[in-house]
Design brief:
about 230 residues, Ferritin, 2 strands, elongated, DUF305_CopM-like, DUF305 domain-containing protein, mainly alpha
């Protein structure tokens, strides 16, 4: 468990325990009748209680910068967790990265000779298509666009050139299998690098868990593809 997760868990546990302790102490001292009963402290659920005005939200800074505090009204996205610039960049880059992997995987059913290649392609479609939906929702919940003006997604590690994609489209049988494994392995290695980088500098807990899942699952798939070539 990371230090940040430990601190969050401790805070939640304390928040749940304090009301119970207060109730036990109150009940133990409540033996002198209503006249001496202490007045109950107002809570957030008491009708007519004023909303707190001094609450702040701690927002992690960009890499190398300190955290800052924000008023609740300045934090966009209901229920969204704090995130930083690298979280946003990761999501915006991983969406087109996943999209090309899906493009490659959809070629396999009609072209692959090895059932293992077709199985890997099916697995990629089953996992990465929903993951694109998750990432788009993450951006939408924070009022962010998926577009990055002026960025050439083809420069990302693992992204295949248009010429390589044409070669894969034209290949059939064993030739397709070998080319698919080579290209998808390179593609997965790029995604693993992106995910590993995010785990170093990202702030959003949901994205950290997602990045860890991407790195783990795609490492396993690389091993399976190499077994296919070796066999």
């Amino acid at each position: 468990m990371t230090g940040r997760r430990a601190r969050v868990l401790a805070a939640v546990t304390l928040a749940l325990a304090l009301p119970l302790v207060a109730w036990v102490v109150f009940a133990a001292n409540d033996d002198s009748g209503p006249a001496t009963r202490p007045a109950a402290a107002p809570t957030g659920s008491t009708p007519g209680s004023p909303a707190p005005t001094d609450a702040t939200v701690i927002m992690p800074g960009r890499p190398g910068e300190p955290a800052v505090t924000r008023a609740p009204g300045e934090v966009r996205g209901v229920g969204s967790t704090p995130h930083n610039e690298m979280d946003v960049w990761f999501v915006r880059m991983m969406i087109p990265h996943h999209a090309q992997a899906l493009e490659m995987a959809r070629l396999a059913p009609d072209r692959a000779a090895d059932p293992g290649v077709r199985a890997i392609a099916d697995r990629i479609q089953a996992s990465q298509d929903p993951e694109i939906g998750l990432m788009r929702a993450w951006l939408q919940n924070r009022g962010l666009s998926a577009d990055v003006a002026g960025h050439d997604h083809g420069t990302m590690r693992g992204m295949q050139t248009p010429e390589a994609m044409r070669q894969l489209t034209d290949a059939r049988g064993a030739d397709f299998d070998q080319l698919f494994v080579k290209m998808m392995t390179e593609h997965h290695e790029g995604a693993i690098e992106m995910a590993t980088n995010l785990l170093t500098v990202g702030a959003d807990q949901q994205l950290n868990e997602f990045a860890n899942s991407v790195a783990t699952e795609q490492t396993v798939e690389i091993g399976r593809m190499r077994e296919i070539l070796a066999g």
